[in-house]
Design goal:
The chain is built from 7 helices and 3 strands; from the N terminus they run ααααβααββα. It is mostly helical and 129 residues long.
Length: 129
């Protein structure tokens, strides 16, 4: 886990230096997020980003631009209660949002969407320097 965080910090610094055209003027916020979150958080965010950027047309037509706790658990093997906590922590940072708010999904649907800021952060981490 420590090596993963070191790699993420390095990626932010390299991308900040190499991509002066970045739309994010305050990259210090990215450093703070990496400092505060774990590699597991970032893996979950990456899954949400992938889901939001590459999903079947049928899901797009049915407005299913979210990732469920079950999907995350299947992909990562992380316990469901931890995923729920991690996702709510990322909501606090403005990276994810609770997709089920305002929808008739029932209580604790555990469906999460990625915010524009979360997409920007994820794209920045994934960009090739």
């Amino acid at each position: 886990m420590k090596n993963e965080k070191t790699r993420l910090f390095a990626r932010i610094f390299v991308n900040s230096a190499c991509h002066s055209y970045s739309k994010t003027p305050y990259k210090q916020g990215f450093v703070q997020i990496i400092n505060d979150l774990t590699a597991a958080h970032i893996r979950i965010l990456s899954l949400a980003y992938d889901r939001a950027t590459v999903f079947p047309e049928e899901d797009g037509n049915k407005n299913r631009d979210y990732i469920s706790l079950d999907d995350i658990q299947t992909a990562t093997g992380i316990a469901g209660h931890r995923i729920e906590a991690y996702c709510h922590q990322m909501i606090r940072y403005g990276l994810l949002y609770d997709w089920s708010i305002g929808r008739a999904t029932g209580p604790r649907a555990n469906l999460f969407g990625i915010t524009d800021y979360g997409k920007e952060f994820s794209a920045f981490l994934e960009s090739n320097s």
